[in-house]
Design brief:
- By secondary structure, the protein is an alpha/beta fold.
- The chain has helices spanning about 15-35, 55-65, 75-80, 95-105, 120-135, 145-155, 190, 195-210, 330-345, 355-370, and strands spanning about 5-10, 35-40, 45-50, 70, 85-90, 110, 135-140, 165-170, 215-225, 230, 235-240, 245-250, 255-265, 275-280, 285, 290-295, 320, 375.
- Helix content is about 35%, strand content about 25%.
- Strand 3, helix 2 and strand 4 (about 70) form a beta-alpha-beta unit.
- The protein starts with a strand and ends in a 6-residue tail after the last strand.
């Protein structure tokens, strides 16, 4: 029989959509359903969640639903418990920074959703504190573990594109205003000026671009609130303070140009909610959450501009599907497994709080660019 090592994880924010579905159910509870995480040395790591939140009723209901016996509404109590090894945070961003600071000061390893803080200074302070305290730390960078992005990464690493010229990204969908039918996102996302789509999505764009194509060196952005009036969960109208769309052009180290549109006010006419098109001298690819299609230089057709003649065949049919060639697990669960192995075995881990600070930095530069109407350069001395 294999030995079992228990790791207790205080999970704050699991009553929210992302914390509940992706982190609690599809990651931690899924690991428990498979008997824990195999550490490869005859030991299975058993994650023991301690649910943390503000609503006693909701925590009690979740604990009962999943057969868990530990939950609390008092963060200080759980952080003072020496049996708790890791603190995880999926709260609203405004609450995350002070909670992470408390956890680090209490000597807990920390793992959290992004953005890690509301501003770059706060994000850097968290990274410095964690380094000084000697605690292991991580930030969710789930897009890197999506099947479509992993296929795209394989193409990049294999030299498929030749010299990469440009990256075009489209993300978003129509978030209902809340009057005709309930919105898919909670109203606090739009009431708080710091909780807009720029703060939410640009941290993702920073690590995806950096990991696949190179770090951002400049950004020029336009940030706006297309839908100024929305209705909350009780049907009451309110004025939206947060931006719901951001359009950016970025230059990456090495000269690659990236154009990224992010919007909660766009109706979807593409195969997936997130798609990247990458064009290179030797070939192109379009990658989404799950799928990836390519067109190599050797089989690129010869389009001719003639608006008076119908297009000959569908352009999408001229692309080839990239095979998976490997099983792909839930992106959040895969990263949880890597972080837990980092905590238990000290295995390499690049997705730390300093990486999270870079995402906050890009969002800050984009907002400054939009506010001042100018291109912002990322100083190489920045993390």
């Amino acid at each position: 029989m294999r030995a079992r090592s228990t790791l207790r994880i205080a999970m704050n924010g699991v009553t929210g959509r992302m914390g509940h579905r992706q982190h609690l159910v599809r990651s931690i509870l899924a690991l428990r359903e498979q008997g824990g995480l195999d550490l490869g040395d005859g030991t299975r790591l058993w994650p023991e969640p301690v649910l943390v939140g503000r609503s006693e009723a909701r925590l009690k209901e979740l604990a009962g639903r999943y057969g868990l016996d530990r939950w609390t509404t008092c963060l200080d109590t759980v952080l003072s418990d020496p049996a708790v090894d890791v603190y995880f945070d999926a709260q609203a961003t405004s609450a995350r920074e002070p909670a992470l600071r408390k956890a680090i000061d209490a000597g807990k390893h920390v793992y959290c959703e992004k953005p890690v803080a509301c501003d770059w200074g706060g994000a850097l302070d968290l990274a410095d504190r964690a380094a000084a305290a000697g605690v292991k730390n991580g930030v969710v960078q789930d897009k890197l573990f999506l099947p479509g992005i992993r296929k795209l990464k394989r193409l990049v690493d294999g030299g498929f594109f030749g010299r990469v010229l440009s990256v075009r990204g489209e993300f978003g969908y129509w978030v209902f205003e809340g009057d005709w039918q309930p919105a898919q996102r909670p109203s606090w996302n739009y009431r708080d000026a710091d909780a807009g789509i720029t703060a939410d999505m640009f941290p993702h764009w920073e690590y995806v671009l950096r990991d696949l194509f190179g770090p951002v060196r400049s950004v020029q952005a336009h940030v706006t609130t297309h839908i100024p009036h929305r209705w909350d969960e009780s049907g009451k109208p309110y004025r939206a303070a947060a931006d719901d769309a951001a359009y950016a052009i970025m230059e990456l180290e090495g000269g690659v140009v990236a154009q990224l549109n992010s919007s909660w006010a766009v109706r979807v006419h593409r195969d997936e909610l997130l798609e990247f098109q990458v064009d290179g001298t030797e070939g192109s690819a379009v990658a989404g959450l799950r799928d990836c299609r390519v067109q190599h230089r050797s089989v690129t057709p010869k389009p001719v501009w003639d608006p008076d003649v119908p297009a000959d065949g569908g352009f999408r049919a001229q692309w080839q599907e990239v095979p998976g060639n490997e099983p792909f697990g839930n992106a959040f669960k895969v990263q949880w497994e890597l972080f837990l192995r980092h905590v238990a075995l000290d295995e390499p881990w690049p997705y730390d709080l300093r990486a999270g600070a870079r995402g906050v930095r890009l969002a800050s530069l984009a907002r400054t660019s939009a506010r001042e109407g100018r291109r912002m350069h990322w100083q190489v001395t920045a993390p």
